[in-house]
Amino acid sequence: MQEQFINLTLENIENEHLCCAIADKKHQAGVDIKKEWLKARIKEGHVFRKLNQKGKVFIEYAPLETAWVPVEGDNYIYIYCLWVSGSFKEKGYGKELLQYCIQEAKDKKKSGICVISSNKKKPFLSDKKFMEKHGFKVVDSIGKEYELLALSFDGSNPKFRNDAKKQTIESKELTVYYGLQCPYIPNCIEQIKAYCYNNEIKINTIKIDTLEKAKNVPCIFNNWAVFYNREFKTVHLLNEGYLKKMLEA
After folding, report:
1. 38-57 burial code (b ≥16 CB/10 A, e <16)
2. Which of 235, 185, 182, 180 shows the shortest CA–CA distance to 58?
3. pLDDT digits (tens, 9 = 90+) for 32-43
4. Which pLDDT tens digit goes with each residue over 119-131?
5. Domain ranges of the chain
6. Using an 8 Å Cβ cutoff, are 49 and 84 in contact?
């Protein structure tokens, strides 16, 4: 099965699709932005590995030290995303991709692998049950929902940074922290800004465009986070419909 997968490289990235936004033209701007972001990350050891077919089947991970998330630990790999969708499910692709990451971590003498998840399954976060089947365990948590899972090889464990556990900010305005990694984000920002403008809702969008900013976000963060009335609300990407539901809840 190994030959069915390819890794994005500086040599092939311009000619390869980015799985998640493969079929939707409105996200093309996000694809271009992510490819530019990836070019810098690949040099840092970032891996984007995908099925060599037209489908949403991929894993994306990086050394924790350079991963744009508020998690810290020594010599770990962080998994941003592991996604198998549609007709590609139940074929063993998720297991194959995860095992590739595990083997690379062992080959590079890493201390382990970690990933942000949740007690109950949530969109845009890795499935806790799937990760536990492969040896991952909860090593840290924020509140009752969000958890940091780790597969430790040497007994050490990563943890959420202290700032991530705040889960509150000073402003009561709708506030969105967003990264450059997900191709869906530019369109989501455009939609919610338009909705807020048309409905006279104050909104503050904060671009996370450096590693330092990502490490110090005041909440759980995997490239997107939303606050309202000072409280953290969700890591779920917002379009106009989802934003309306959240504000009315």
Report:
1. beebbeeebbbbbbeeebbb
2. 182
3. 899 999 999 999
4. 988 888 999 999 9
5. 2-162, 164-248
6. no
